[in-house]
Specification:
The protein is mostly beta strands. It is built from no helices and seven strands. It has one domain. The strands form two sheets. The chain has a four-stranded mixed beta sheet with strand order 1-5-4-3, with no helix packed on it. A hairpin with a 3-residue loop joins strand 4 and strand 5. The N and C termini lie far apart (about 25 Å).
Length: about 80
């Protein structure tokens, strides 16, 4: 699990923040994106997914997406519209 401080502005105050393992995917409708200190928090309906890298996924807000964490160098996070 990822610890998130109170300075994250996405409305996930009562949502769990999870970290994906390699080759693990989360699918849901993206509600918001927050970046802080090189980390990106993606807010979905039921939880938030944290990544230790900056991701530019604002274009997917409001869309149902799959976010896959891989072990492929240069493609550590793969996003697809569902």
């Amino acid at each position: 699990m990822i610890s998130v401080d109170s300075h994250i502005n996405v409305s996930q105050a009562h949502k769990a923040v999870i970290s994906l393992g390699e080759w693990e995917e989360y699918v849901g409708t993206l509600k918001g994106v927050e970046k802080k200190d090189g980390m990106t928090i993606l807010e979905f309906d039921k939880c938030c997914v944290g990544f230790y890298r900056e991701l530019n996924l604002e274009e997917y807000i409001g869309k149902k997406i799959g976010v896959l964490r891989t072990d492929i160098e240069g493609r550590e996070v793969v996003v697809r519209e569902v």
